[in-house]
Amino acid sequence: MAKQVKTVIKLQIEGGKANPAPPVGPALGQAGINIMEFCKAYNDKTKDRMGQVVPVEITAYVDGTFDFILKTPPASDLIRKYANLKKGSQMPGREIVGKISKDDIRKISEIKMPDLNAVDLDQADLIIAGSARSMGIEVV
To answer: Which residues, in sequence order, are bridge partners of residue 98?
Structure first.
């Protein structure tokens, strides 16, 4: 028989750096999850992704246990990394703050493909290019 789900929590935590401090502790405490057990498991699975934001989807069950699924880094973080920028434009559409090549768009699409709602890489490229444009980054 399947376990009864209590809640699903989505967080974005830097890889290998989960700790009981906010926002992790309060979110997990409300769901009745052992915070230190989650932090140790998360840090162990993400130690190879230090410095990257790694989204996680945590499923809390009624009996106090939990499962979690790691996602790919946010597209905006990957775009900023490949474009060598600290942040996107404050006025996208009017102000261009950087450029990114189509090859870099393809690399990001390959990374993000498991989490995107796209059938093939060409469609994924269009999604990532649209995200870049909405950040004020020109695709060349």
So the answer is: 137
